[in-house]
Design a protein that fits this description.
Helix content is 40%, strand content 18%. The protein is α/β, with parallel strands linked by helices.
C-alpha cells in the first residue's frame, strides 16, 4: 500500500496489486478529517490509518462509504465514534451485500480438506478466488458498522470553508454508488464508478447509467480522479472506462445476435486493448450485464457469486491466461 498526495488537502491510499478487494481509500484533510472508504479487512484498514496518520492531526471525524460492497466498508469498525455517511440504499443493502459471514465461510471451507474438495468439484472458481484472497486478506473479526448519516440525491459538507459534494449516481456499478467532488481542489473520489488498469466488476445497474455518470465526472473537469481501484488519474481514466464499457457492450450485442451464451461470448470476445489490465477474464461479468439488458431483465437481478467466479475461471482457462480475480 502507498500514500499519495493528490491536491493540497486530498490524499489517497492505494493498493497497488490491483486485484479483487484491493480497493483505494481517500482522505480530505480538513474540518476534522474525512476518510473515503475503509478497506477490505482490519489489517488493511489499520495500515491505511497508519499511512494517513502521517498527514492528519487526529483520527478523522467522518467516514464516507462510496457504496455497499465489502471491500469499501469492512474497515468501518476502526473509526469508532465517527459519523459514517452514505447513500440511503447503502445502509439498507450493506447487511445483505457485505455480510462478512459469507466470505468468512468461504475462506474456512477452502482451508478444510473435505470442504475444499467439495468446493473444487462444485465451484472451482470460488475455491480459486478464496486461495487468491488468502495471500493478502484475513476476514476474521470483521463486524459490520452501518452508516450513521444517510442522504438522498446530494449531501454537502463544509470543511473549514471548503465544500465537499457527495453526489448519488447509482445504480451504475452498484446500487448505492456515490462520487465525492471537492471543487476547490479539482478532485473527484470516484468509488467503483472507475476501475483503472483492472477490469471493472459491475453488479447492479445499467450501461446507459454508468456511461452517463462517467460523462458527469468528465463534466466536473477534475484535475485528479481517485478511482475505487487502480492508480490515480485525470479525466482520461473516465474516458478509458467509457471506451471499455462501449467496447464490451458492442461485442456482447454481436455475440448475443449470434445466439452465443454469455460464457461462450466471453471466451470468444478479444480483450482488445484491455488485455494488459489486471484480471481481464472478469470480462464475463460485463458481458453478462450486457446480456441481462438484452434479455430485458431487471438491473438488480441477484448474482450467484460462486457461479460468477466459476465463469471467470473458465474464461481465463479458455484464453490460456493466468487465473486471477
Ligand atoms: Zn470495490
Amino acid at each position: 500500500m502507498k500514500l499519495q498526495q493528490v491536491s493540497e488537502n486530498c490524499f489517497a491510499v492505494l493498493n497497488e496489486k490491483n486485484l479483487v478487494c484491493d480497493a483505494n481509500s481517500g482522505l480530505i484533510n480538513l474540518g476534522g478529517g474525512v476518510v473515503v472508504d475503509t478497506q477490505s479487512d482490519l489489517s488493511h484498514g489499520r495500515r491505511m490509518i497508519e499511512l494517513f496518520g502521517k498527514v492528519w492531526r487526529a483520527m478523522p471525524r467522518r467516514v464516507i462509504n462510496t457504496h455497499e460492497d465489502g471491500d469499501h466498508v469492512w474497515g468501518n469498525q476502526l473509526f469508532d465514534g465517527a459519523e459514517i455517511i452514505a447513500h440511503r440504499t447503502v445502509k439498507e443493502l450493506m447487511p445483505h451485500v457485505a455480510d462478512p459471514r459469507e466470505t468468512q465461510q468461504l475462506m474456512k471451507a477452502s482451508d478444510r480438506f473435505l470442504t475444499r474438495m467439495l468446493l473444487k468439484a462444485l465451484h472451482p472458481g470460488a475455491l480459486a478466488v478464496a486461495q487468491q484472497l488468502k495471500q493478502d486478506y484475513d476476514f476474521d473479526d470483521i463486524r459490520l458498522v452501518l452508516p450513521t448519516t444517510v442522504f438522498e440525491e446530494r449531501h454537502v459538507l463544509d470543511l473549514d470553508g471548503t465544500e465537499v459534494h457527495l453526489i448519488y449516481v447509482g445504480p451504475c456499478h452498484q446500487i448505492g454508488d456515490t462520487i465525492i467532488h471537492v471543487p476547490k481542489e479539482k478532485v473527484v473520489f470516484a468509488g467503483d464508478v472507475i476501475f483503472r488498469e483492472c477490469t471493472p466488476m459491475g453488479w447492479n445497474g445499467t450501461y446507459e447509467k454508468w456511461l452517463k455518470v462517467l460523462d458527469l465526472i468528465i463534466a466536473l473537469d477534475p484535475d485528479v480522479i481517485v478511482p475505487g481501484h487502480g492508480p490515480v488519474c485525470g479525466v482520461e481514466g473516465a474516458m478509458e472506462m467509457k471506451a471499455y464499457l462501449g467496447y464490451v457492450r458492442e461485442e456482447s450485442k454481436r455475440c448475443f445476435g449470434q445466439g452465443l451464451s454469455a460464457l461462450e461470448a466471453s471466451k470468444k470476445i478479444d480483450f482488445g486493448p484491455y488485455g494488459g489490465w489486471r484480471a481481464p477474464a472478469r470480462l464475463y461479468m460485463n458481458v453478462e450485464r450486457a446480456y441481462r439488458e438484452l434479455r430485458h431483465e431487471a438491473a438488480d437481478k441477484p448474482w450467484d457469486h460462486a457461479k460468477v467466479f466459476d465463469a471467470v475461471l473458465t474464461v481465463a482457462k479458455a484464453k490460456g491466461i493466468p487465473v486471477e480475480f
